[in-house]
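Now for a chain:

_____
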Amino acid sequence: MFSKTKPTDGNDKHEAPTLTTPSAPSSSSSSSSSASSSSAPAPSAAPKPKPAPSILSSDLMVKGNLITTGDIQVEGTVEGDIRAHLLTIGEGATVKGEVIADDVVINGRILGRVRGLKVRLTASARVEGDIIHKTIAIESGAHFEGSVQRADDPLSTSEKSKAPVKATA
């Protein structure tokens, strides 16, 4: 971008202060300021680090909906819908509402519909509601009352309108 040597003739001596060459004292301050401003976009181009998950502790009770593009770990009680990227329901946690996430890990209790690309019910899971999923894993010992429906895109709103139609096998 900048060259250390630049051929100059008689006319360029008057223009030298306006050029950004590192050897000119008057332009070195403008060079460093333009260099720092040109290097400022570089850090923003780097990928941002993934933020830590939001944790709702066991003594917390939330009445309302939770919406995030990040991760949530629920250890307390939530009365409302939850939408997240990764949702982990702790063993002592209770959620009364619809759960929508790319990845859902259920160790506790959910009273409501679960929609996720990957849904996992561990042995301590207690789910009372329908599960709409792309992939599902249910460990031995999990308690589940409701229907299970596979969908290619369980997170889309069109699937929500199709969900009440239950197929019998």
The chain has two domains: 12-45, 54-161.
